Amino acid sequence: MSVPKSLLSFGHRVGAISVDCGKPFELKAATQTLHARIMSEADTLRMIHGFQGQPRDALILLTLYATGARASEVCSMSWGHWVEQPNGNAIVAITDKGDKTRYVVVPASVWTQLKQYRAEATDAAPVFPRRTGRHLVRSQINRIVTDAKQQAGIDNPVSPHWFRHAHASHALHRGASIGLVKETLGHASLDTTAAYLHVSPDESSGLHLGL
């Protein structure tokens, strides 16, 4: 589809076609692809809470979902990035690949589990270390997600990034503002976040009418 779209758009730019016929394909294709990669809340929580393995691995799944962070961002987390708040929540500083830092609030229910797992680890220590004591790498998180998917009986392929999609979709569905989700996930454009508003097959404005 990308080649015909490019040709149609090019034809419009050079004046051969009066209307950019390639433009409508982009959002539709992206939205359809995104819809296929959003797990239900039930499947997401089943993968997290039903995981049978190392406590560390279940907490990785929980952290992916609770923060909406990318796998690489979770790999690079150290305990010094986390600060507990008076209300029991925690704030984690997440630095993306462009060296931009965002601050994400994590619920007390999640932070309590992470604190219990931390034990005596120093601020400089990785939150999720491998056996050598160094930070995990993404391939290890991929394996953990695959194991959790199989244990949960989910047939579709699932990657760590699907927890990020789930975070955005589920938070919006539960009433979080689109601006808040944008800042939490570190999207550069509001259009990226807005795509999640178009992928819920169970929601429509017609359901909000007085019928």
Tally of individual domains: 2
- Helices, by number, come to 10
Helix content: 40-55%
Would you report the number of β strands? 3
CATH class of the largest domain: Mainly Alpha
What's the CATH architecture name of the largest domain? Orthogonal Bundle
What is the N-to-C order of secondary-structure elements (H for helix, E for strand)? HHHHHEEEHHHHH
Structural class by helix and strand composition: mainly alpha
Unreliable segments of 5+ consecutive residues: 1-7
Give me the CATH fold name of the largest domain.
hpI Integrase, Chain A
| Overall pLDDT score | 83
- Computed over alpha carbons, the radius of gyration is 20 Å
| Span between termini | 40 Å
CATH superfamily of the largest domain, by name, is Intergrase catalytic core
Strand order of the largest sheet: 1-2-3
What would you call the shape? globular
Largest sheet: 3 strands, antiparallel
Describe the protein.
The chain folds into 2 domains: 2-36, no CATH class; 41-198, Intergrase catalytic core (hpI Integrase, Chain A), CATH 1.10.443. The chain is built from 10 helices and 3 strands; from the N terminus they run αααααβββααααα. The chain has helices at 2-13, 23-36, 41-49, 55-67, 71-75, 108-118, 138-152, 161-173, 178-185, 190-194, and strands spanning 82-84, 90-95, 101-106. The chain has a 3-stranded antiparallel sheet with strand order 1-2-3. Strand 2 (90-95) and strand 3 form a beta hairpin. Helix 3 packs across helix 7 (138-152), helix 4 (55-67) packs antiparallel against helix 6 (108-118) and helix 4 (55-67) crosses helix 7 (138-152). It is globular, with a radius of gyration of 20 Å. Keywords: DNA recombination, DNA-binding. One of its GO terms (biological process) is DNA recombination. GO terms for molecular function: DNA binding. InterPro entries: DNA_brk_join_enz (IPR011010), Integrase-like_cat_sf (IPR013762), Integrase_catalytic (IPR002104), Tyrosine_recombinase_XerCD (IPR050090).
